[in-house]
Amino acid sequence: MYSHCMTKRALIIGGGIAGPVTAMALRRAGIDSEVFEAYDRGAEGVGAFLTLAVNGLEALRLLDLHDLVRDLGMDTPVMEIRNARGRLLATTSQPSRTLRRADLYQALRDEAVRRGVRIHYGKRLTGASATANGVRAVFADGGEAEGDLLVGADGLRSRTRALIDAEAPCARYVGLLNTGGYAEGVRAPGRPGVCYFIFGRRCFFGYMIHPEGQVWWFANPPSRREMPPEELAAITPEQWRARLMDLFEGDAGPMREIIAATPDILPGWNTYDFPRVPKWSGERMVLVGDAAHATSPSSGQGASMAVEDAVVLGKCLRDVPDTAKAFAAFERLRRERVERVVAQGKRNGDGKAPGAGGAFVRDLILPVVMRQVEKRNALAWMHDYRITWDERVAA
Ligand SMILES: Cc1cc2nc3c(=O)[nH]c(=O)nc-3n(C[C@H](O)[C@H](O)[C@H](O)COP(=O)(O)OP(=O)(O)OC[C@H]3O[C@@H](n4cnc5c(N)ncnc54)[C@H](O)[C@@H]3O)c2cc1C
User: Fold this and answer.
1) Matching Pfam families, A to Z (predicted)?
2) Which of 319, 332, 315, 317 is nearest to 284 (CA)?
């Protein structure tokens, strides 16, 4: 049940994943909140897809949001990894759900509104400062809002992060580009429920078969150089198609058929992470999600970390009355874990572009490593992590 005597009021910046989920967690903790999203409603488009790992799904369950994601996308509990010659390197199994980012954003926003959260669109945060009793946010349209605290859920390019710490580092480019799409009418080998990953000789590729037949895929062309956004935007879908066809020439696997059967190849983007954001909070302001600790998509954990953050912040603000101490408790509970995930994501990503010698070693070592990982449950720290909503947080 939600509390009816809301005492504090939070301003949440960003209506992605961390924003709406934080709003729902805070509501459950008895704190009223409003979400301010820079873009207009529906600006998201079709876009890419992402996978929620089991730990993220379990964190959603604490807020009764697991049914919501069960209605979107597909289950992808099995992962199969092959090399460029088609040799099976590893198989693992772990519950997870793959869904379109835009569908997840929309569903979370709709549910937050249904639970009484107000979401304002077209509100880009430009400034924020502490006042005598709280915090004031200023938006690009000249509007202002006041609250008791402000949560920066504004993603990789967080404005809140810069307001908390003008010296905050920039995101790290991790040497990979990203593109992908949704192929129609192609018979890719395999079955629904499996993520097929292929270490091509020149490019990493992943695909999943939707139960209704579409093939969802992504590719990570390596690029030492971080491409300026305008240069990336200038590459047409047909140029991407031609480039990817070249990159997968001669590799075993259905990559070229899948790419050929994709009507609209997604515009490419650079991949980044944040090994360490030194300051997560300032006076009355705190960061959650990618704003605090973006991980490369190669970890498969960015969305799950955003959800976990939201739930843990809700608990901290519920149990620790002093806001600054609540933020400190949040950081104490989260920093080590999320930085470990970011490091894991970087390692996963580095394996995607190893060069010829590295690929030979990888093909030898990966099967052994993956068998050990399965046998010893070496990623249990990541996947078996569970938050208990009722357990109290100490200041
Ligand atoms: C292509 C791609 C594939 C990915 N694949 C996976 C995956 O398989 N598994 C996984 O777990 N994660 C994946 N991720 C990462 C995942 O999407 C992010 O970690 C997750 O979205 C983080 O949520 P967030 O709410 O912190 O940030 P975001 O989802 O980026 O949301 C931030 C929001 O803040 C808004 N905003 C920004 N600036 C302002 C401002 N100044 N004022 C107001 N609003 C603002 C933005 O418009 C946006 O809506 C992937 C990411 C990408 C890009």
Assistant:
1) FAD_binding_3 (PF01494)
2) 317
Which residues, listed in sequence order, are joined to residue 32 by a DSSP beta bridge?
9
114 Cβ neighbours under 8 A, 6+ residues apart: none
311, 317, 323, 328 alpha-carbon torsion, rounded to 10°: -50
Residue nearest to atom 5 of ligand 1 (CA): 50
User: What DSSP line would sit under 308-341, residue for residue?
Assistant: HHHHHHHHHHHH--SHHHHHHHHHHHHHHHHHHH
For ligand 1, whether the C-beta of 119 sits within 6 Å is no
pLDDT in tens, 36-87: 999 998 766 668 999 999 999 999 999 999 999 998 999 999 999 999 999 9
> What's the pLDDT tens digit per position in 203-260?
999 999 999 999 999 999 999 999 999 999 999 999 999 999 999 999 999 999 999 9
Instruction: Using the mean position of ligand 1's atoms as its centre, give its distance from the Cα of residue 273 in Å.
Output: 12
Using a 6 Å cutoff on CB, does residue 135 contact ligand 1?
A: no
Determine if ligand 1 sits within 6 Å of the CB of residue 221. no
* Nearest-CA residue for atom 51 of ligand 1: 297
Res. 356 pLDDT band, cuts 50 70 90: low
DSSP annotation of 222: B
Contact status, residue 293 vs residue 274, Cβ threshold 8 Å? yes
CA of 235 to the centre of ligand 1 (A): 23
Distance 242 CA to ligand 1 centre (A): 29
Instruction: Decide the pairing of beta strands 194-199 and 78-83.
Output: parallel
| CA of 306 relative to ligand 1 center, distance in Å | 9
> Measured between alpha carbons, how far is 223 from 183 in angstroms, rounded to an integer?
24
Going by CA atoms, what residue is nearest to atom 27 of ligand 1? Answer: 155
Domains of the chain: 8-171+274-383 (3.50.50.60), 173-272 (3.30.9.30)
Non-local CB neighbours of 166 within 8 Å, separated by 6+ positions:
none
List b or e across 246-274, with b for residues whose CB sees 16 or more CB atoms inside 10 angstroms: ebbeebebbbbebbebbeebbbbebbbbb
